[in-house]
Each structure stands twice: as structure tokens, then as C-alpha cells.
Design brief:
The complex is a heterodimer of chains A (182) and B (368). By secondary structure, chain A is mainly α. In chain A, strands 1-2 form a two-stranded antiparallel ribbon. In chain A, helix 2 runs antiparallel to helix 3. The longest helix of chain A has 28 residues. By secondary structure, chain B is mostly helical. The mean pLDDT of chain B is 95. The interface between A and B is medium-sized, with 27 and 26 residues.
Chain lengths: 182, 368
């Protein structure tokens, strides 16, 4: 019996320590009105595919029109940050043909979900405000990139035909998409 | 039934009716569904209402002690208590029921995920007039949200109906828990100890807190474990955790017991329930770090402690907690503020009865 009590005590001690550790998370919040996320797992990383899989699942978790609005905006933010990081590492092909494109696609989907929510009688004023703030932030990032990056770039992959990437044009297209939602 | 017992039951019935009437003094002014019976009495006669509340709490404990000492018909008492208190006003002491209703509305009416969309984001909804904590995402587990579909959907959007259907749901699990305590303890004393504890009665049958649902599934899990149905027992414990998460603290005891079952070792079930009570007291006390100790959290350990009434010190401590926790409402009732001296009085009334009970228990043990 004494042995059992000792064992039990161990269980409780471990449980107690684990619980208290979760009580004090270190959270930090930025002061900006609209904050883009940190870059998550990047293409080529081992965690990239699991990230994509998780995001596909999240699409179903974010049900409802307000939920879908939040999901699409979150994804658009994520892919914009991914594109920005790839551009900074000169990975122009993936940045413009995939990441930025995905960010645009998700961004385009945001407003229709808000309109659907409005038609259901939901008040969307706060979310519309968030979308405007997000648009401005995206445009700010894209403009900065546009100034820093070359207008065009010829991507030469091994044993493949070179591809001409119209970086500036792609970025301007993304800016125009976001300008419509301002 | 002798004459004295009959008289006690008549007085108890009258007491319950007065409690029902008393509860409606606390009607929320914004709860327009009940505007015809709104008096605002509790907010304009704070001192009188506080004294009445203390008197009712003391009376309920007197009845409780009487029921524990004398032989009473448990089924009759529970039946009377459930039936009369079904008509009470749930948000008398806490507004949780509105939170349950509004969360159910977010998902089942607006088809939005309550873990992502706060009720306050649905700006035009009428429930926002009286729902507290509308600026928070769903506070409860997914299984509770699934269960809340039953009263919400069957009420067809009628507020009053859904309000009382939630009460029926809670009463159902309250009765289920009593049945389980009876089955596990194989006595009439343990169910009586739990079912008529004034804190349980007020917080579950009046306040309609979903903690009873969580504890029902947790207890059912141990009930199945006694019958060595490990798989189903695990499933029910998971369901319990998915209601309000607190029963995650039962996992060490649960795993340890499963381990012993697998090893075919003898299990001291009283010991198991003692550690279950201890675990739930621990999480109950730790809840002070998260927000504050709410009186209805006591249901977490009362469920298990009522199974082992022979542990006198535990019984004393849990009864003292039951009494002290019900007095936590007094400072706000009197002052009308959650700040200033209120937190200090709350701590005082919660822990002083427990400390006194421990001292009493200690000396009783020495001089026995």
C-alpha cells in the first residue's frame, strides 16, 4: 500500500508540474493595428507538406461565412509572408508563381463571404474594417517589394527552358486586387 | 413515513417554493422575455436580499443535516427538489445559462464556429442584451456544444422553451449522477450526501451549470472501469474532458487504475475515489490562477467525495467548502461590485469554514 501511495504521489507531482507550466505562457503582442503572421514552414522544408495538409483540414474547421472570411484572410496573410520571404531569398519562381498567386486567390475570396454573411443578417462592419486594414498592410508590403525587386527575372532551372518572370507585373496585379477591397 | 418526517417534507417543499420566488428577484433587466415579472427588487434592496439569501442558505444546510441524520425517502426528496426548482430562475447567481444558449445559437442558428466567432461579433442578436462574456470564444468543450443542440434545436428558436429545456437537460444528468453514485456506493447515504448538498442543489438545479454533465461522464467512466470495461471507460472519460476539460486531472488516477486492471492486481476503489476527489480539489484550487474559484466547481470533487463518506476529514472539508462557497455570492449581492473589498471577503468566506473544519476534525481525532 505504501508503495502504491508513493507511485500515486509521483503521478500527481508530474501532473501538477505539467499543469503549472501551461499556466504561464509567454505571449507577446505587436502594437500595429494589423499584424501579419511570422513565416510558417517554407517550401522545401520537411514541415511544408504537413502544413498544407493542416491548412486543408482547417478549411472545414472554419465553417460559416464569418469563419470562411477569417480562414481566407488568414491564408492570404500566410502566403503573402511566404512570398515575401521567398523573394528575399531570390526564390522568384516559387514566390510569384505559387505563393503570391495563392495569397491573391485567398484574398479575392474574403469579401464574397462577408457579403454572404451580410445577406444572412450578420453585422459585418467590424470585419469589413479588418479587411480594409489587411488590404492596406498587404499593399504596403507589396509596394516595398516592388521597389526592392528587379522588374523581370529569367529563371534558369537545370536542363529546362529558362522562364521569364515578370515580377513587377505580378506584384502590381496583386496590389490592384487588394486596392479593390480598400 | 412518520408524522415528523412528513412535517419536515412539507416545510422543505415550502422552502423550495420560497427559493423559486426568491430567484426571480434577480431577473436581469435586459431579459425582455420576462419583463412582465421583472421587479428589480434584488438591485434596489441589496441588504434585505442578502440577509434573505444567507437565511435561505443556512436553512438549506439545516434541512441537509436533518436529511443526513434521519431516514428520509431519497427518491421523494430528489423528486420534490427537481420538480420545484425546475421553475426557478437559472441566472439568479450566475449567467452561465445565457452563455450556453448563446453559444448554441452561434453554431445552430448562425452556422458559425463558436471557437472562432464570438457572440459579440453577431451584433444584432437579441441574446447579447443579457449574455455575459459575449466577448469570449466558446468556453466549453465540443461535446457540450453537441449536447446543447438537443435543447436548442427542439425549442425551434423559442427562447423561453430553450431556457427550460436546458434545465431539463441538466436535471437529467443530475439524476443520472445520483443513479451512478447509488450503483457505485451500493448505499443510500452517498447519493443523499451528494444529491441534497445545498451547493449541488443551488448550483445544479437552480444555476444549471454543465459541470454536472462533465461529472456524470467522468463517474460513468469509473463505473465502467469497476466492471473492467477499459475501452468504454476511456471513451466516457474523453467525453467528460470534452465537456469542460477539468476532468483531464483524473487521467493520472484513471491510467494508474487501468494499469492495475491490466496487471490483474487488487484495486482499492475507496483509494481510487479518494485520489479522484483529491485531483478535483487540486484543479478546483488551481482555478484561482486562471480566473477565480467559482462555487459550482465544487461539484467536481463532491461527486467523488460523496462515494467515500467514511473519510471523515474529507467529508468535513467538502461540506465546509460547500457552505463557504455559497457565501461567496454575499459581498456582490450586498455591495453590487466585484472590486474593492469583495475579492477579500470572497476568499475569507471560502477558506475560513474549511480551516475551522480542519481544526475541528483534527481535535476530534485527537480526543476521540
Amino acid at each position: 500500500m505504501a508503495f502504491e501511495i508513493k507511485k500515486m504521489r509521483k503521478f500527481f507531482l508530474i501532473g501538477f508540474i505539467l499543469f503549472t507550466l501551461t499556466l504561464y505562457p509567454n505571449l507577446a503582442y505587436a502594437s500595429s493595428s494589423y499584424v501579419l503572421p511570422y513565416p510558417s514552414a517554407m517550401p522545401g522544408s520537411l514541415l511544408y507538406r504537413p502544413r498544407l495538409f493542416l491548412e486543408t483540414l482547417q478549411k472545414y474547421w472554419y465553417f460559416g461565412n464569418l469563419g470562411q472570411f477569417k480562414y481566407n484572410l488568414k491564408e492570404s496573410d500566410k502566403y503573402l509572408v511566404e512570398a515575401k520571404t521567398l523573394f528575399e531569398y531570390n526564390q522568384y519562381l516559387h514566390a510569384s508563381s505559387a505563393s503570391l498567386k495563392y495569397s491573391d486567390e485567398f484574398f479575392i475570396r474574403t469579401l464574397p463571404f462577408l457579403e454572404k454573411a451580410k445577406n444572412e443578417g450578420k453585422d459585418i462592419s467590424e470585419m469589413r474594417k479588418t479587411l480594409r486594414e489587411a488590404s492596406s498592410k498587404h499593399i504596403e508590403v507589396l509596394k516595398k517589394l516592388s521597389n526592392e525587386l528587379p522588374q523581370e527575372f529569367e529563371w534558369k532551372a537545370e536542363k529546362e527552358k529558362p522562364i521569364l518572370i515578370h515580377i513587377r507585373k505580378e506584384i502590381e496585379k496583386s496590389i490592384s486586387i487588394r486596392t479593390k477591397y480598400l | 413515513m412518520n408524522r415528523l418526517n412528513r412535517l419536515v417534507i412539507i416545510f422543505y417543499t415550502l422552502f423550495l417554493f420560497s427559493f423559486v420566488l426568491f430567484s426571480y428577484l434577480f431577473l436581469d433587466p435586459n431579459l425582455f422575455y420576462f419583463k412582465k415579472i421583472y421587479t428589480g427588487f434584488a438591485f434596489t434592496n441589496r441588504a434585505l436580499v442578502t440577509y434573505l439569501y444567507i437565511f435561505l442558505v443556512l436553512t438549506s444546510f439545516l434541512f441537509y443535516l436533518l436529511f443526513l441524520k434521519k431516514k428520509f425517502n431519497l427518491k421523494l426528496l430528489v423528486g420534490i427538489t427537481c420538480t420545484i426548482l425546475f421553475f426557478s430562475y437559472s441566472a439568479m447567481l450566475s449567467q452561465d445559462i445565457f452563455n450556453y444558449l448563446t453559444t448554441a445559437k452561434v453554431i445552430f442558428k448562425y452556422h458559425e464556429n463558436p471557437y472562432l466567432v464570438m457572440p459579440i461579433e453577431l451584433i444584432n442578436d437579441s441574446n447579447l442584451l443579457f449574455t455575459h462574456a459575449a466577448n469570449k470564444l466558446a468556453l466549453y468543450g465540443p461535446f457540450w456544444i453537441i449536447l446543447s443542440a438537443i435543447p436548442y434545436l427542439t425549442s425551434l428558436g423559442n427562447f423561453i422553451l430553450s431556457f427550460f429545456e436546458f434545465k431539463i437537460l441538466i436535471i437529467f444528468f443530475y439524476l443520472g449522477t445520483i443513479w451512478l453514485i447509488n450503483k457505485i456506493s451500493k448505499s443510500d447515504y452517498s447519493p443523499l450526501l451528494f444529491a441534497l448538498n445545498p451547493l449541488v442543489v443551488i448550483e445544479i438545479l437552480v444555476g444549471n451549470h454543465n459541470d454536472i454533465v462533465m461529472m456524470f461522464f467522468a463517474l460513468f467512466s469509473f463505473f465502467l472501469l469497476i466492471r473492467k470495461k477499459i475501452l468504454f471507460a476511456s471513451l466516457f472519460l474523453i467525453l467528460s474532458i470534452l465537456i469542460k476539460y477539468a476532468t483531464i486531472f483524473l487521467l493520472p488516477v484513471f491510467i494508474f487504475t487501468v494499469f492495475k486492471i491490466i496487471k490483474k492486481q487488487k484495486i482499492d476503489w475507496d483509494g481510487v475515489f479518494f485520489y479522484c476527489s483529491f485531483s478535483m480539489i487540486l484543479i478546483f484550487l488551481l482555478s484561482a490562477f486562471r480566473e477565480e474559484i467559482y462555487p459550482w466547481y465544487a461539484v467536481w470533487f463532491l461527486t467523488f467525495s460523496s462515494l467515500i463518506p467514511q473519510k471523515k476529514m474529507l467529508l468535513l472539508v467538502t461540506l465546509a467548502f460547500s457552505f463557504g462557497l455559497l457565501l461567496r455570492y454575499v459581498p456582490f449581492m450586498l455591495i453590487g461590485s466585484h472590486f474593492g473589498i469583495t475579492p477579500m471577503i470572497k476568499t475569507f468566506v471560502t477558506f475560513v469554514p474549511v480551516i475551522l473544519a480542519i481544526i475541528y476534525g483534527y481535535f476530534k481525532k485527537i480526543y476521540r
